[in-house]
UniProtKB/TrEMBL annotation:
The lineage of its organism: Bacteria, Pseudomonadati, Planctomycetota, Planctomycetia, Gemmatales. InterPro entries: PQQ_b-propeller_rpt, PQQ_rpt_dom, Quinoprotein_ADH-like_sf, WD40/YVTN_repeat-like_dom_sf. Pfam families: PQQ_2 (PF13360). Gene3D superfamilies: 2.40.10.480, YVTN repeat-like/Quinoprotein amine dehydrogenase (2.130.10.10). Residues 118-333 form the Pyrrolo-quinoline quinone repeat domain. This is PQQ-binding-like beta-propeller repeat protein. Transmembrane segments: none annotated.
Length: 445
């Protein structure tokens, strides 16, 4: 996975910059973007063969939920702008990823206890194949979790998945033909809330978060062989499910992770800890966000926390590099959006809040119509898309004053964060996979 930058795909000169400025005044390309794109190119260089419109990992190419794709619709329903809809075998809360003409999902079959990897054709939603990665009795878990909550990762030729096998975290690699190439396990995982350790890619490394109440760890594996390149213990041993985020700080990449009663950054290639900030929040689910040179972390268990951290320090930076904090504005499961000068937080109960990123000043806070949110919001063409558990998507304008652009309803329960590719939204509901878009506008293999 590349480091986070302002643009979500390859910048096409002044044309793209002009489109962005016309669409929204909230974020503009800066002079440092060229340097960031060079860093991005270096990270992508080792064997990553992604198409520009792929959505290869959770929350998109940069893991930040931000994309510019003018063909993505703002209006749909269960019948309007539906390109196709197909049934999904089994159950799960993992998100779809789109890679080289394929859509991958993980799922759990309660009748067989199979933890499955599913592959669909992105053109028409046809199920191309399904493979049982492993079979194991469903673990003890939170009522809002499933045995298939971890989203796959892909590089255009292979796909990686993680599941819990008893007390072992299992990591597997598959070809696009559905052949398992390797499987590796890490023991000692314990969690009353179950498992969700979504893997992410950094060059030739696959990084897995194994935060738990047991033998907690973060590890980097060789994506081709499964060989452990580095593995570090997490000292506080507290279950957390945050997905690592890559950022660029002073010309160097950091992998930042919230969890284990802290927010910490590591060197992606060695696992060396760069800095750590202690937290009064024990368990994190939301992934951190990054803009204006600051890291933002939020959680609610057991204490509500929203904190802004300067990632330029070393060692314990709790006091020295905390820029601001807020105990009243926080989310547990939905990850925040950070873009330009703004930070957007969506609480699990549907309270949407826009803040100034540098200061934490609250611009507005409004309750949306749905009371439960587990999907993370996305910023698409300068508009914020918030998918609620009841299948309604609220599209907001991130301006100085609150404005609801529209509300779209599918009528099916939804927990997973959507994927975006070539002008289309891919939404996983409790039973189905939806492709939303204007028919005939998308180009794909």
């Amino acid at each position: 996975m590349p480091v986070q930058t302002v643009s979500s795909h390859k910048v096409e000169g002044r044309k793209v910059e002009g489109q962005r400025r016309k669409r929204s005044r909230l974020y503009d390309l800066r002079p440092c973007d060229l340097r960031l794109l060079l860093v991005l190119a270096l990270i992508l260089a080792p064997g990553l063969s992604l198409r520009a419109a792929d959505w290869p990992v959770w929350r998109g190419p940069k893991g930040d939920g931000i994309v510019t794709d003018a063909a993505v619709p703002t209006k749909w329903s269960a019948t309007e702008n539906v390109v196709w809809k197909v049934e999904v075998p089994g159950a799960g809360h993992s998100s779809p990823v789109v890679s080289n003409g394929h859509i991958f999902l993980t799922s759990f079959d309660s009748s067989t206890t199979d933890r499955m990897l599913l592959c669909f054709d992105r053109k028409d939603g046809k199920l191309l194949w399904k493979q049982s990665v492993l079979s194991a009795t469903a673990e003890k878990m939170h009522k809002n979790n499933t045995p298939a909550s971890s989203t796959p990762a892909s590089d255009g030729t292979h796909v990686w998945v993680t599941f819990l096998d008893g007390e072992k975290v299992a990591v597997a690699c598959y070809s696009f033909a559905g052949k398992q190439l390797w499987l590796k396990s890490f023991g000692g995982f314990t969690s009353a809330h179950g498992f969700c350790g979504t893997p992410v890619l950094f060059g030739d490394l696959l990084i897995v978060n194994g935060d738990s109440d047991g033998d907690a760890f973060v590890a980097a594996l060789d994506k081709k062989t499964g060989e452990t390149k580095w593995k570090i213990d997490r000292p506080n041993r507290v279950r957390s499910f945050s997905v690592p985020l890559f950022v660029e700080v002073r010309g160097k990449a950091q992998v930042v992770l919230a969890g284990s009663k802290s927010v910490a950054a590591f060197e992606p290639t060695t696992g060396k800890q760069l800095w750590i900030a202690d937290s009064t929040t024990d368990k994190f689910v939301a992934t951190v966000a990054f803009t204006e040179g600051l890291i933002f972390a939020t959680g609610t268990s057991p204490n509500s926390t929203l904190v802004a951290l300067d990632p330029t320090g070393t060692g314990n930076v709790t006091k020295s590099h905390t820029k601001w904090s807020d105990t009243k504005t926080a989310s547990y499961v939905p990850s925040p959006l950070a873009f330009g000068k703004h930070l957007f937080v969506l609480s699990d109960s549907g309270i949407a809040t826009l803040l100034e990123a540098k200061t934490g000043k609250k611009l507005w806070s409004e309750r949306l119509g749905s009371r439960l949110h587990h999907a993370s919001p996305l910023l698409i063409n300068g508009l914020i898309y918030c998918l609620a558990d009841d299948g309604a998507t609220y599209i907001l304008k991130p301006d100085e004053e609150y404005e609801l652009v529209t509300k779209n309803t599918l009528g099916e329960e939804c927990h997973a964060t959507p994927a975006v590719s070539d002008g289309q939204l891919f939404i996983r509901s409790a039973t189905s996979l939806w492709c939303i878009g204007a028919k005939g506008t998308a180009k794909h293999p």
